[in-house]
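okkk here we go again. third time trying to get the magnesium ion bound version out, last two times i messed up the smiles copy paste (missing a bracket lol). double checked this time i swear
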Amino acid sequence: QDSAPDGPPKIGMTFQEMNNPYFVSMREALMEAAKTIGSEVVVTDAGHDVAKQISDVEDMLQQDIDILLLNPTDSAGIESAVRMAKDRGVIVVAVDANANGPVDSFVGSKNRDAGYMSCKYLGEALNGEGEVAILDGIPVVPILQRVEGCKAALDEFDGITLVDTQNGRQDRSVALGVTENMIQAHPNLAGIFSVNDGGAMGALAAIQGSGKDIKLTSVDGAPEAVDAIANGGPFIETTAQFPRDQVRVGLGMALAQYWGAQVVPSEIPIDVRVVDSENAEDFAW
Amino acid sequence: MSHDTTTETSGSLLKSITRSPLILPLVGLVIVSIAMGFASDNFFSLDNILNILRQQSIIGILAIGMTFVILTGGIDLSVGAVMALAGTIGAGIMVNMGMPAEIGLLGMIAVGVLFGLFNGFLTAWGKMPAIIVTLATMLIARGLGLVYSGGYPISGMPGWISWFGVGRLGGIPVPIIIMLVLYALAWVILQRTSFGRHVYAIGGNETAAHLSGVNVKRVKLMVFAISGFTAAMAAIVLSGRLMSGQPGAGVAFELDAIAMVVLGGAAISGGRGLILGTLIGAVLLGIINNGLNLIGINPYLQDVIKGLIILLAIYISRERR
Amino acid sequence: MSHDTTTETSGSLLKSITRSPLILPLVGLVIVSIAMGFASDNFFSLDNILNILRQQSIIGILAIGMTFVILTGGIDLSVGAVMALAGTIGAGIMVNMGMPAEIGLLGMIAVGVLFGLFNGFLTAWGKMPAIIVTLATMLIARGLGLVYSGGYPISGMPGWISWFGVGRLGGIPVPIIIMLVLYALAWVILQRTSFGRHVYAIGGNETAAHLSGVNVKRVKLMVFAISGFTAAMAAIVLSGRLMSGQPGAGVAFELDAIAMVVLGGAAISGGRGLILGTLIGAVLLGIINNGLNLIGINPYLQDVIKGLIILLAIYISRERR
Amino acid sequence: MLQMTDIRKSFGPIEVLHGVDLEVRAGEVHALLGENGAGKSTMMKILCGIVSADQGSIRIDGKQHDFSHYDEAIAAGIGIVFQEFSLIPYLTAVENIFLAREMTTRLGLLDRKAMRRRAADVLGRLGVDVPLDRPIADLSVAQQQFVEIAKALALDARILVLDEPTATLTPGEVEHLFAVMRELRQQGVAIVFISHHLEEIFEICDRITVLRDGEYVGTRETAGIGIDELIEMMVGRRLEASFPEKPRAQPDAEVVVDARTVQLRKNGPVSRFQLRRGEILGFAGLVGSGRTETALSLLGAYPAAKVDASINGVDKAPASPSEALARGIGLLPESRKEQGLITSFSILQNISLNNYGKYETLKLFIDLKSELDHTRKAMKAVRVKAPSAHAACDTLSGGNQQKVVIARWLNHDTPILIFDEPTRGIDVGAKAEIYQLMRDLTADGYAIIMISSELPEVIGMADRVCVFRSGAIVATLEAGDITSEKIMTQATTGELNYVA
Ligand SMILES: Nc1ncnc2c1ncn2[C@@H]1O[C@H](COP(=O)(O)OP(=O)(O)OP(=O)(O)O)[C@@H](O)[C@H]1O
Ligand SMILES: Nc1ncnc2c1ncn2[C@@H]1O[C@H](COP(=O)(O)OP(=O)(O)OP(=O)(O)O)[C@@H](O)[C@H]1O
Ligand SMILES: [Mg+2]
Ligand SMILES: [Mg+2]
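finally!!
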């Protein structure tokens, strides 16, 4: 790492899932950025399976990548892959979720903040009272942090009670059924926080189907969610993350090191931003 | 099967139910309903009952095709993925290609039936075991859906498509009506046509059916095509509910569909089972999901309880196998 | 099976392989390897070969138990979930309960074997179809793991556990050694003990085996216990690789394990198949996954190609069924 | 040596054994006789612990036993050859013979050499040549039967039960078996022998116990009883001569099947034959001589190398049984349970299985009433004994099951029928009924191919006989030429034809 190597680096990125617009747009941004520097990119999809993700990293190491952008499906589980990559002198940057072990940098959203902001918004929209439910997701750290943040925000409202937490698996069709049941179970339900926009879209369909006045907030800023918010209706807010920026910054950190930078920030938190009917029109990932 | 037809010939539907293999699934349904009713006040509201039926409509429709396939002694693991693929391509036709929505719906049906025919062809003419064929086509369908859509959901369908998902006809949600009509159709096919008898015959004894002149290959082709068709119908309802094509929808739906069929009293080895049983199984599973939600059980525990209830139900009805 | 035994009596292992049902899986392996070798320079490096074997070790180990179960004509859908549960509880014993890691490892084995016995008991004594029993226990195991851990992975195992996942013995990764030892053990059991014969006999004709005095129930209990045991061994390797208990690990691993068994030439209906075939199937699937990654195929397309290769492989070897 | 007293057994609500006694001495061959469904096999399954009796006692050498598993019976010195095949198709002969009692080395591993030696030894005693290392599925039916017998002999049992072991054997093979039985008798083994071939009973058995409908009728010395008396004990009445009279030959009757070439295997021998309206064409030959395969080839159910035939005027061999059905040719398969019946179906569903065309309204929906009427008619025509058309088929006796399959074809009005071993495992009474039925059918203009391994049946029923050897027809015998000598000569030495 003393002297700058010649030629563009070979980049590998492993995603926790690609069945989600969030990561798909992240991948697009990566591809565009890599093209501008003439790098070859290998992308893999772990499908939420850490063991597969480790294998994916091993395969990429076989291809002699120089930079590994890691979007871990589980922070602890991926550690051995991080170590393997470091042993081979590969620069490792964690994106969106952190990884244990000697990662060079971590670029990620403030997930706890995201949960907090969404639920704060929800609580205020409900004027600080009413029954609220959480539509949970896959048990991974970022999601768990959003729930934590949400609960912290809800605790600040004396008049709000958290009456139910169910798992919509971040899947639109599953979330739809689960939300319908929640609405049945709690006739006075006034608000729902979904841990991501995929689940929120399902919840939105359920709320609209029930004809009830239930307010919905979420996290992500996915195009469909932003559209729905712009159109008005039950979906009032999503706390947007910036997947494209995350990967751009992550790649930047890695390149800096690749070109010889000795000191790079070990953690670069990317802010999240409230998107509501006010600013939805202008927002896009 | 034999019981059913026996009594039906000589008596009313009611009589046939009380003496038929449906009795156990029905008893299970009643017991679970009563338990849920005690545990949650909302359970017995008309609203909630319609809610349960509507939620089950998608997998309930998949379970119709699954019943045909299982009755012949096969299995179809691809239904969830085919449903997702059909819905995605249908949405793509409407949104990306800008064609009329009707063409999109026809496209969904075409995708479903074609995949079904592919499964049936490989099973019947390729002489390969259904479980492996449909495991492979599940991967293929899932992958194709993601490739086609680039992983993004495809939204922007014409608004009236939502009628299939959230519309009502005479106060009854459309998905429920679609499901019930398909069940009625399936009942007629299975109980009142020679094709239906041949489905049962193949599941009962394939060699004997073949040697006595039943066109086993064609029947197998047909049952998979039917399963593909019901996957497409499920895709239509799903599109109406989600107003988008979701390449990732329906993961593990095949397992719920199989559970419905066997909860309804069908033998997984084929030859025995009633389509009405599957309907009961669908409602039963819906009640379990809904009830556990209503009671507010920890979502992780819900799977455990669901597993135990399936075991119990199969254990109780096992004597008939 | 019979082929194998035939030739083995009269000749060497080598001879037995060339004349045995292994020949087709082997040919498939060679063809796919050559194709991948052309497509990627790195493919044939020793490093990459060890890499492939290490990657496949976990599901490859699951496939051992799956082979036993499939040979008797059953199926075990619970292996992935049981592996996750065993790993989670084992990690919990080490981390949350602060017990020595050895106890944790024993705990994993206990969980695996107990679940296996539960599956076997329900199948053999409960007379319920294996596919349904293990579908239900899959739900149960998955749910229990999540309930136990609250959904969080459990990390903080003693460092030496990683030896099982990333250690090396004489230059060879430990997971590979564990896998090969288990395969060798399975080979001895299946080919050289009366229990092994009974496994094949039950898959060949259960009634006949019963009439001949084979204790069918006990053998069925045992094969599921073996499957639970190999799930636990897979959990140990997984723990070594992940250094944590992952309640959500192993989703759909059962499907890959089944694919390995049938790619190895076993009949899904039981009675025919060799454990060496499963090993070849495991390597074959590993090469497909690794090769598609190395070539840099779009991840969505990988599933499609994998599905097509499975279909092709099964189609070619179908004559033997 | 063996005493079974007052054995009672019910399956569900139906009692099938109403207090049966059986007493067998050391060193005797004891016949157990009775019509189909009399309860013979059930008695034997109770003896070896596979079925448990509801009541009654089993004593061996005066000692009370109550086996709950076959292993316990084996430990007590009992060995049995089951009526149903109990072999594993993919295992070899050696593996099958030692299944569940494998020999092991001190390490607990299989002692494959010792087992092979012992298996060769036992099969040698039976005087048959059976490949030891091939999967059982590759062997001929007779070879399989001998493996079955060897499996029981290898137990060195003191009480040996043989439940219809000869049904698939040729006379020569039966003689080998009898020689072994005599030798065992010398050694003091008690043998229970079940067979529907009365001449075999008289040849080998010392005493006979007769059952009728689950009732114990009596036990007699073979020496002191005649065949007529025996039949009367079995069926409760005297039987008229069992074969109906043959009609006059009609050589110019219409040819409904003209099989110009049937070649089962590439480069194998070639058959040709014709079937005429109103006749019964016998297919005779040793077991495994290719009769069934030839018949299946005609239906498109066997991948023969070449089939060139015209059926019912259509000059193209059918490609599948469903096509064959459309040409008007149907098969009564040799194995009822595996190939004929859908056991989960009712009688009605089995009979109407392949001819819904008759009952469909709008060419689509089954007219249930018409279906029931037709079924009842067909059942009456073949005299199926059953509580109702809706009775489940697995509750019927073998003979009645066979009649249900025949009724299926009668209902279909298929003018050409192939009856493969129509009376295998069927009792004398039912046999006579089936013979009469076949004659009635030919009188109505049906044409029948009858495959049979029982020479008397072939001679008594067939108008013409095709004799098979090694996969093809070697001779077609007519009228006076149909004698057992001529058939056996052709079946063993007939000349094969290799060109079409
Ligand atoms: N497992 C069973 N369940 C119900 N009924 C049975 C069962 N096994 C036998 N039966 C009935 O018991 C009766 C006696 O059958 P069994 O097999 O002992 O007769 P068998 O004398 O051996 O006749 P065959 O000469 O045809 O072999 C028959 O009516 C048969 O249908
Ligand atoms: N070349 C061969 N290889 C393996 N098996 C063979 C071969 N030729 C014949 N056989 C066996 O011999 C038998 C020939 O069959 P087929 O059933 O047609 O004879 P059959 O005269 O009708 O005798 P059966 O009385 O058993 O009906 C089959 O069981 C088949 O498995
Ligand atoms: Mg019998
Ligand atoms: Mg035959």
